[in-house]
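Case 174 in the screening queue. Each case pairs one protein sequence with one candidate compound; here the compound is flavin mononucleotide. For every case the pipeline is the same: read the inputs, emit a complex structure as tokens, and attach any notable structural observations.

Predict complex for case 174.
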Amino acid sequence: MNTFETIMSRKSVRKFTDEAISDSDLNAMLEAAMAGPSAANARPFEFLVVRDKEMLAQMAEKTSKYSGPLKNAALGIVVLANKNRMFPDAPGYAAVDTSIATENMILAAWSMGIGSVWLGVWPSQSNIDALTELLNLPADIEPQHLIAFGYPEDPMPNAREGRFEENRIHYEKW
Ligand SMILES: Cc1cc2nc3c(=O)[nH]c(=O)nc-3n(C[C@H](O)[C@H](O)[C@H](O)COP(=O)(O)O)c2cc1C
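Case 174 output:
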């Protein structure tokens, strides 16, 4: 799958098989996460990998009601922003930087046959507080995104059509 095919065929996966994700695949996903651009090259991200089933279930229980896919995931990754590494002139960019890292991981995983779903954390303070407590995070580390990963129960879909909307594109002036 080339990059364009990876982007065009990716789809959120919420039901996973029991198959584990190897350390080498996990490392490739994390390499992709850290390869992306970031504002002022601040790279404010940190990653917390959770494989423990009980902890995954707790994370699902204690965050939003839409975090259920963690319960059957092979692993979960919490993408965190390190407040000490944020670009001081514009710390708000950290959420953009961690989002890029998240999507890079999702796409890298997809290219290796691994499905995932992005589970929103930030900017919901109750989600942030729940993960901070559960994962024992220090005050300068903010959880921003959660991803459930695993091998898809259903076959990987082909590239989908119908999302391209020409009327969303504007040239030169609105
Ligand atoms: C910021 C963000 C938060 C999301 N949160 C959730 C979530 O809590 N639970 C969930 O099942 N899917 C979540 N999703 C996945 C979206 O529902 C999904 O991307 C969207 O429906 C489009 O489907 P697709 O990913 O298959 O293209 C989230 C996606 C993003 C980008």
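Case 174 observations:
- The chain is about 35% helix and 15% strand.
- The beta strands are 45-50, 75-82, 115-120, 141-150.
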